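Quick one:
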Amino acid sequence: MNAVPPVGKTQLRVGRLVKAHGLKGAIKLELYTDDPDGRFVPGATFTLQVPESSPWHGKPLTVRDFRWMNSHPVAFFEGVEDRSTAEELIRAILWIDEDAQAASAEEDAWFDHQLVGLDVVRDGAVVGRVARIEHLPAQDLLIVRVGDDEVLVPFVKAIVPEVDVPGGRVVVTPPPGLFEELPDEPDDEAPAQVARAEDAAAETED
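Output:
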């Protein structure tokens, strides 16, 4: 499930670079698109989401070759000729410009403005409202306002099984402890919630 950030142009997140492969600059991909062979054609150019300290900050990334190796998607990019250069790009997120109509057709993809303000429903009852979206390298988080507090909900299918924009709601099935206060909760709630959110997301990937 993808949330598309408001970054001037309308963009879709299509992949994340996860691991250098071999010695000639190949990089394994985590895909966020249902059409990888169409998205990663030679010449396709992506906007990179990387830290400002990265040598690739502000630079585009263009595909030279895309292939499947042992069922894993692997890409070669222009300017990435060896393993050390490939490793500079690990954890980078790839975005592509897309008009609003095409983006709305992408399965399980929404713009931030479509999600913000939706009611959050758990077991048939409204428990909060989406305040904003946080885009992290591993996954997106829905920041849900519950009274005076904020709850960090991993935006993954196992925890957010339904997004009903016309109906004004998202349905959540959170693990224990994500919304409830647990015994002996530390005073600094935010780090604890981040840890619970990361644990919950990791469990859905196992």
